[in-house]
């Protein structure tokens, strides 16, 4: 057993059989992928990596597996799945997720191409784990997948604790060990015992508070929109058949690749990012300001480039001067609870009025953003309000955003 010192969990134990996987290229690459993308532009301490998070998730997954009294084979399956669950991420984590989904037609959770051949596949075979089972766990299809893929999973427990630690934001408090001891496996997957409701509520509160403070902070969103535009312009210059190559880079090599692009747009955007000369918010509005018919159109199309093109045409600006950011609508947090002395499973929302309030709060936190250079904010704002049929904010709205 190898012992690794971790600033969040203390000492993390790594089974000797897993060490070759820990040292494999796909896992070691995560040392050079920032966990929070460009959040370090807001919180200077947020330079932790996907590697640290994967170790922490593996640690909690092993503890939960043992708490659930799983067989030794299932403990190994869950532990290895947790270690490998993020190896599909592109550079700067979620900052390049949109490019991956659009041009490779997969998400970071689809890692079949990384585990079915090469050294990782060989190591999985050596310890008796089928790559297909790993994929099933990470994609949320396995009966045990709720341990690392659900609203009450160890992945969330670790990243909330870790992100709060490195950003200094005091909202990520999670009683991970209480949640682990309060979880059970049923034929419907992972569920919560009634005595874990308070700990579950605490986790959901942490997720809700961390969204606007860290995960959807407008500065991070702007930086991500800029790097996404720079990467797409670079791919136009080298050919979209090179998307896989670009997404297999780590943060540093990705940044240098695009900074030295043949595309002048890419070079300008990356230089601005390097100097923290960021675009500003011309439009940053919630659902209450976007009329329902417009919102349905915007969300269903998810066509940020088309909206940007229309705004540019109306303002006479080149297309790199307007960036549109349409986050996915937040899904409702849902956890099933087994009621004491009964066999019934009830939703946490039915037992906890707080959960319903938190789900409504998450919807209210959603923001549609249109970003541009500081000198063009006014004309972009006026054009966007007209084109998207958005209600102009009141003085109170401006104070909130």
UniProtKB/TrEMBL annotation:
Q: What Gene Ontology molecular function terms does this protein carry?
A: dGTPase activity
Entry's Pfam families? Answer: HD, HD_assoc_2
**Residue ranges of every copy of the HD domain listed in the record:** 50-160
Question: What GO biological process term is on the record, naming one?
Answer: dGTP catabolic process
The record's SUPFAM superfamilies line, in alphabetical order, gives:
HD-domain/PDEase-like (SSF109604)
Q: Which InterPro entries match?
A: dGTPase-like, HD/PDEase_dom, HD_assoc_2, HD_domain
What PANTHER family is this protein classified in?
A: DEOXYNUCLEOSIDE TRIPHOSPHATE TRIPHOSPHOHYDROLASE, DEOXYNUCLEOSIDE TRIPHOSPHATE TRIPHOSPHOHYDROLASE SAMHD1
Q: What protein am I looking at?
A: HD domain-containing protein
Taxonomy, top ranks, is: Archaea, Methanobacteriati, Methanobacteriota, Stenosarchaea group, Methanomicrobia
């Amino acid at each position: 057993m190898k012992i690794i010192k971790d600033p969040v969990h203390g000492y993390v134990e790594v089974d000797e059989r897993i060490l070759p996987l820990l040292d494999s290229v796909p896992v070691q690459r995560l040392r050079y992928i920032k966990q929070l993308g460009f959040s370090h532009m807001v919180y200077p301490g947020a330079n932790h990596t996907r590697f640290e998070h994967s170790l922490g998730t593996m640690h909690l997954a092993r503890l939960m597996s043992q708490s659930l009294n799983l067989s030794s084979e299932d403990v190994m399956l869950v532990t290895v799945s947790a270690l490998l669950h993020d190896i599909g991420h592109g550079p700067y984590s979620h900052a390049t997720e949109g490019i991956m989904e659009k041009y490779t037609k997969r998400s970071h959770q689809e890692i079949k191409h990384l585990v079915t051949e090469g050294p990782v596949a060989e190591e999985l075979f050596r310890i008796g784990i089928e790559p297909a089972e790993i994929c099933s766990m990470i994609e949320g299809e396995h009966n045990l997948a709720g341990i690392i893929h659900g609203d009450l999973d160890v992945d969330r427990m670790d990243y909330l604790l870790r992100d709060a630690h490195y950003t200094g934001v005091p909202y990520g408090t999670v009683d991970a060990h209480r949640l682990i001891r309060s979880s059970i496996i049923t034929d419907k997957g992972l569920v919560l015992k009634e005595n874990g409701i308070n700990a579950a509520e605490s986790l959901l509160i942490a997720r809700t508070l961390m969204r606007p403070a860290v995960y959807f902070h407008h500065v991070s969103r702007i930086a991500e929109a800029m790097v996404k535009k720079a990467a797409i312009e670079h791919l136009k210059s080298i050919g979209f058949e090179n998307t896989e190559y670009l997404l297999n880079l780590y943060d540093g090599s990705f940044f240098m690749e695009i900074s030295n692009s043949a595309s002048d747009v890419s070079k300008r955007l990356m230089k601005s990012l390097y100097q923290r000369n960021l675009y500003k918010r011309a439009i940053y509005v919630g659902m209450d300001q976007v009329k329902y018919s417009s919102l349905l159109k915007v969300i269903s199309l998810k066509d940020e480039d088309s909206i940007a093109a229309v705004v540019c045409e109306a303002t006479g600006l080149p297309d790199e001067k307007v960036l549109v950011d349409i986050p996915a609508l937040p899904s409702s947090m849902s956890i099933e609870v087994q009621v004491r002395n009964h066999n019934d499973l009830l939703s946490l929302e039915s037992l906890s009025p707080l959960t319903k309030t938190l789900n409504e709060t998450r919807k209210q936190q959603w923001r549609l953003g249109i970003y541009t250079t500081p000198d063009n904010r006014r004309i972009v704002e006026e054009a966007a309000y007209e084109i998207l049929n958005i209600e102009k904010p009141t003085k109170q709205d401006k104070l909130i955003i």
